[in-house]
Amino acid sequence: MRLGAHLGISDGLAEAVHESRRIGCESLQIFSKSPQMWSGPPIAPAAAEAFRAAVRSDGLRATAVHHGYLANLGSPKAFVLKRSRAAFVDELHRADLLDVDALIFHPGAHLKSGVDAGLRTLAESLRFALEEVPESRVRLLLENAAGQGTTLGSKFEELASVLAQVDRRDRLGVTLDTCHLFAAGFDFRDERGYGELMDRVERILGREAVRAFHLNDAKAELGSHLDRHENIGKGEIGAEGFRHLVTDRRWEETPGYLETPLDDRGYALYAADLRTLRALTEPSAAAPRIRPTARRGVARGSTVK
To answer: pTM for the whole thing?
Structure first.
């Protein structure tokens, strides 16, 4: 996996690239403007060129812009939907200017209009954006949700429905957030659970639809539907819970972006999380296999405490 993180751009777009490499990133995700704004100041051509040049010179393997938090592309409210679509198209133009690989966004919420209605509206919003910016090469990636409230996209079937309604596999895809998966009830912490999860991915979404991961531990318990990120190894998933994902050769060219908590030490916690994840890929770090002991009253393969 191409491990990376979400970095800020307050010191400049190009500096975000350089800083990402200093802490050991192979991939980089950014906001192109404040995520709490519907629109932002235009990106200066010189700043965009500096960003593109830095990506090339620093050798980043993948880049993405994450859409802001205000837009709801599945909203039943006409004014909100119109504004959300305009903001999304603007963000797509900004992502194009930066020449990033993907624009990652939250599917939104149906606000009690019903899941099917929300998914139809979301699909219409994406068709609108693709028609408005037909020449774009940026892939639009729906991010799975934790399932809180009326949010869309916590089920693979919902994400697959949107992909099918838009029918532009060359322009669409999915980002899977590990915290959101866990909060939605997917337990991938052991080999069996991970295998079952990947079987569902293959069967419902198709492996080729998954174009990125957000690598976040979870503060809340399995199935909580709470979107609460934690540093790798500090939450309910635990460091070992990421082993199968980051060592799965199917994802070796896929970016995995950290969105874990930071503190006043800057990106030191990102650097630590990257080290934790990379340690899982080292042969010496492999968890020892425990040979099951045949014992009366204990099923073969059970853990004896």
So the answer is: 0.91
